[in-house]
Amino acid sequence: MASPKTSRKRPRSYDPEKLRIAVITQFAAVRKAVEGLTPEQLAAPTRLGDWTVRELAAHFTMAVGMLPRGLAKPAPPAADLALMDYPSLTAPAAPAVAVGVQELAAGAPLSELYAEVTEGLDRYLPAGVDGGRPLVHRVGTMTLTDVLVTRAVELAVHTDDLNDALPDLALPVERQLLAAATRFLADALAAKAPGASTEVRIPPFAVVQCVEGPRHTRGTPPNVVETDPLTWIRLATGRTGWRLAVDDALVSASGERADLAALLPIMA
Questions:
Q1: Buried b / exposed e along 243-256 (16+ C-beta atoms within 10 A)
Q2: Does 210 reside within a domain?
Q3: Residues 139, 173: one domain?
């Protein structure tokens, strides 16, 4: 994997085995947390519109359950969707996801949903999985590695949503999963606003250059944005706003091209 000090020139590569372990580990941690929630906690509101914690908990099983469901079927001939095409397709798919989550949460008990997905992961996502295997996603056919990257984003974002709804939970995000989500969303910004006038730093995981304008060649770039991984993920997915993050000193931005407000969020 490229060093986080290197700006993106080629599509980033991901290790499917590390992603597999990270997704399974995070899902297991979420399952343990959800199974310990009280009815009052499950009924608590979230920052996701009218979703309660119960709907959010059900969504985890939908987001991760697509892996064993897809892998249980014969592989399609080829992948037709590139990873960097994914962010623009999430918003159009959101209404169908919302309907599915409501139905899921109103159906089987959460314990059954989590047990079913866990069993499927054990059976269909073993060690040594072929990352190049095509897999049908809601928005197109992608390689398994690319789908695992999207699942890393889902798990990182929604674990943070769960912590926001229930602050005492303080459920950590697995490091490899957080790294993959951060890097993907940083690369998505660079793809959305190609250029080299602004450097976006998200230590310790990513550095990308973006935004059209004069290219710097030596020394400190004239336009620099820096933030931490969780703040970046919140910005990139619309959980927090640019101005609020800057005012709260969660983002430092210097230079006339360092205002990213018009480019955010990157995906729904």
A1: eebbeeebbebebe
A2: yes
A3: yes
